[in-house]
Amino acid sequence: MSWRGVLRHEPTEGGVWVLDTPKGRFVLLGRLDGAVDGATVEVDGEEVESFGFAMMGPQIEVRRLRGC
Amino acid sequence: MARPDPEASPGPGRWLGLALLASVGVGLWLLPSPAPVAYQTGGELAEPEPVGPGTLVVDYVDGTSPAEIAAIEAAAGIRLEWASPVSEDEALRSGEVADLPTALTTLAADPRVEVVEPAYEMSVSEVPAVRPQLGYPDDPLYPRQWNLALVGAPVGWRLGGGQGVLVAVIDTGVSPLPDLPAERVLAGRSFVPGVPTAADDHGHGTHVAGTIAQATNNGAGVAGVAPNARILPLKALSANGGGRTDWIAAAIDEAVDQGAQVINLSLGGGHSDVLVNAVEKARRAGVVVVAAAGNAGQEGIGSPADAPAALAVTAVGPDDQLAPYSSWGKGVEIAGPGGNTKLTGGGITQATLDGAGGQAFKEWQGTSMATPHVAGAAAVLLGAGASPDEAERLLLGTADDRDDPLRYGAGRVDLAAAGRSLLLHQRGLLAGIGAALALALTVLAGLSGPARVVSLVSAAVVAGGVLFLPLLPLPPGGWLSLLARPFLQWPGPFWSGFPLWQSVLLPLVVGVLFAPSRLAGPLALGFVSGVAGYLLYGAASGTTDLWWMPLGFDRTWLATNGTLTLLVGMAVAGMVKMRRRAAT
Asked: How remote is the C-alpha of B59 from its chain's centroid?
């Protein structure tokens, strides 16, 4: 699946990348090389039935990050 | 006609004893909570803020000529000035530039540039720092730990700092560090497939564990809420911070099996029946379970915080108000300091991994950071003799109430108040029972006057400890820590770890040895009364856990030995009476 939204780096919990989309906020898991706070991106990945320390919303296991 | 009693001075002695007991009680009420003194310190740990857009500072290689510097800057399309009138020798220049990122990139590529970076403004802390009391603790970064002062951690240290309590941290793992020594951290277990050990591969779990049990007063780093507790690391979150509900539920079961008395869950997600059930099972087994409310900054908390048996924790910042990121809503039980890194010095500073195999002190925020303050406070209360139910009642009953249960639950955790309440109610009761038994036995022995006072006071101290000591701003440790505790809670491998410690054995020995002595007889009577009171209270309340006793027999053992100790006390009283008769 893919999601389009704005990347945000939240300072909470030592720093967490999230994606703000029209459907709400998603926590991004995995390598996010080249991520830039405030950039509009398309994220390819999989929503995982997962818990974590971010606790800001559903989590996406990121496969690829594309700038828009 | 009754013979004159050579040791008696009836009346005044009884009143003196009562006055002593009363003064202890009044002292407890009147003594103020030791509050930290605020002062300002630097804020080197906080993220520096750039001075406006495009302010650059460049340190050229020493010896670079002014002509070369002018050429480099011209090529980069900038014109800087010497950073100060004496900076020419150091080739240090600064100034405004139109395109900061491009200038940074261009200059960094030039071998004649030693360092180039945006100019930062180092600000002083916006959060008042705390001052150690009488030099305790001596951890150099303690002044930044406003959070520990806010929850009253110093009282917790004087209550034993969680001595003997095992706290399970279910997280990304926990790695021992110089400021979180290996002897405090058990081996633990990993529930993440493919990860063999519970070592931390992220840093989150180590930071959380540090808030609970960071080495304190070791002359290095920072302090923790319950520095004498031990940590059981159970890794249920992978290096990227995620984990499955079955891993977390299995970790909760493991914590119970390993004998953890507190479980810290600085994690969460949507609702999960599996997690709720695991938490309920753990609580039924007598474990205090503490869970983070979440960081969505809106109403609604997920699992495991939504389990009725969990203490769900929201976060407050240094202003003691709900932090903007904290989730809140129905099911919130209590709040703790989670920090606010938007304020310089406003985060929670603990030791964690530096990413290169070493230790770093990082200032983080989150309900994950709030949760271990409550877990640590629970560990302190359990270590000081509270039962799990009592610990929860004390935490909720003494929290700093905000009259806003959806955001703060019962209020912000206040370990100092909980500790005072424990001293007053539980230990005060213990001391009272000990003194009451001593009073009865001194009547039986025919003791009065100073001898009776000695018996009453020694019984109260043996049963409940010197009640007011933990409330005085004295450094914990040594004899002060021992005297602050009931005698049978004294730590040590040969004392409280010995199975017959909580039995009639020691009172019997003391009674036989010292009852015939004129001077030591009243003390022996007090000692026996204090131990009898402690054992009988443990049998009646169920607060005493005998680690070596099969489940369910603790109370029978305590009741039997308490009764036997009381019989020993009656025998000692008889011996004291006979000795006095013989003396007259």
From this structure: 46
ipTM: 0.94
Query: Terminal CA-to-CA distance of chain A, rounded, Å?
Result: 16
| Residues 260-279 (B) with a CB less than 8 A from some CB of A | 266-270, 272, 275
Name the E strands within A1-68.
2-10, 16-21, 24-29, 40-48, 51-52, 59-67
Q: Describe the crossing of helices B520-541 and B428-445 by its angle, rounded to 10 degrees.
A: 130
Taking Cα atoms as reference points, which of B511, B502, B505, B289 lies closest to residue B389?
A: B289
Place of tokens 């400021």: B179
Cα–chain-centroid distance for residue A67? 13
| Helix spans in B45-191 (H) | 66-76, 100-108, 146-150, 153-158
B411: DSSP letter: -
With beta carbons less than 8 A apart as the criterion, state whether B127 and B202 touch: no
Q: What is the distance of C-alpha A4 from the center of its chain?
A: 10
Q: At what angle do helices B554-583 and B520-541 cross, to 10 degrees?
A: 160
Interface of A with B in 5-44 (CB under 8 A): 10-14, 16, 25, 29-30
Range from B22-26, B77-81, B506-510 that averages highest in pLDDT:
B506-510
| Better pLDDT: B394 or B553 | B394
Nearest Cα of chain A lies from the Cα of B416 at a distance, in angstroms, of 27
Number of domains in chain A: 1
B179 touches chain A (CB under 8 A): no
CATH number of the domain encompassing residue A15 = 2.40.50
**Residues in Cβ contact with B50 at an 8 Å cutoff, skipping those fewer than 6 apart:** B118, B119, B120, B121
What are the structure tokens assigned to B416, written together? 């100092």
Burial B501-536 (b: 16+ CB within 10 A, else e): bbbbbbbbebbeebbbeeeebbbbbbbbbbbbbbbb
Kindly state the tokens that stand for B219: 């002359």
In which domain, by residue range, is A47 found? Answer: 2-67
* Tens-digit pLDDT profile for residues B215-269: 999 999 999 999 999 999 999 999 999 999 999 999 999 999 999 999 999 999 9
Which DSSP state fits B425?
I
Residues B394-432: pLDDT tens digits? 999 999 999 999 999 999 999 999 999 999 888 899 999
B 298-337 residues with CB < 8 A to A: 302-303, 325, 327
DSSP state of B520: H
Distance of CA B403 to the CA centre of its chain: 25
Clarify whether B62 is annotated catalytic: no
Q: From the CB of residue B377, how many other CB atoms can be counted at a distance below 10 Å?
A: 34
**Cα dist. B523→B424, B437, B527, B529 in Å?**
24, 13, 6, 10
| Extended beta strands in B266-340, E state | 288-292, 310-316, 332-337
Collect all residues with Cβ–Cβ distance below 8 Å to B554 and sequence separation of at least 6: B538, B542, B544, B545, B546
Interface test with B, best of A32, A50, A51, A61 (most B CBs within 10 A): A51
